[in-house]
Specification:
Layout lengths: L1 H28 L2 H27 L6 H13 L5 H67 L3 H12 L10 H23 L1
Helix pairs in contact: 1-2, 1-3, 2-4, 5-6
GO cellular component, one term: endoplasmic reticulum membrane
GO molecular function, one term: microtubule binding
Family: Belongs to the DP1 family.
Length: about 200
């Protein structure tokens, strides 16, 4: 466990942070030689990081595995060994040069497929959202119309006639008419609620 923590720290500090700062210095100074040096390093380090995911799962039982990783990162960075430059020039550059057209074609196909997939799932998502919105609107409209249907025209006309019968110039209903109208509306509402529950 201690070896793992130390290797993570060394890779973070010497494998990532120091090269990032050195790359910044190369960009700032606009020195082409430094650009090339650090670009080769980052290509090798990206490959190392990709391979490390699998080696950490399957080879961590090897004695001194984490110490070997630390030594490898130091070897990549060392100005004496120029490890990243050696690996890039001897292995990576020739391999990528011979497979460059195939890789570019594969990347184009992957971009096209990912765009098509994104459009396909985007359309599906919009269809699902539209269907859900229509269903919610339909359901709420049905509930509203059912509520309105529960009051018959006779109920509304009797309510109107009660308020008209109070006499000219008065806007309030007599207590008996108000009570009868409220009772009628309450019974209609209760019968509707009972119908909903069943």
């Amino acid at each position: 466990m201690v070896s793992w923590i130390i290797s993570r720290l060394v890779v973070l500090v010497f494998g990532t942070l120091y090269p990032a700062y050195s790359s910044y210095k190369a960009v700032k100074s606009k020195d082409v030689k430094e650009y090339v040096k650090w670009m080769m390093y980052w290509i090798i380090f990206a490959l190392f990081t990709a391979v490390e995911v699998f080696t950490d799962m399957f080879l961590c039982w090897i004695p001194f595995y984490y110490e070997l990783k630390i030594a490898f990162v130091v070897w990549l960075l060392s100005p004496y060994t120029k490890g990243s430059s050696v690996l890039y020039r001897k292995f990576v550059h020739p391999t990528l040069s011979s497979k460059e057209k195939d890789i570019d074609e594969y990347i184009c196909q992957a971009k096209d497929k990912s765009y098509d997939t994104l459009v396909h799932f985007g359309r599906k998502g919009l269809n699902v959202a539209a269907t859900a919105a229509v269903m919610a609107a339909t359901k709420s409209q049905g509930v509203l119309s059912d509520r309105l249907r529960s009051f018959s025209m006779q109920d509304l006309s009797s309510y109107e006639s009660d308020s008209v019968n109070t006499g000219p110039g008065t806007t309030t209903q007599p207590a008996a008419a108000q009570h009868r109208t409220r009772a009628m509306m309450r019974s209609k509402s209760e019968s509707y609620n009972k119908g909903e529950q069943t």
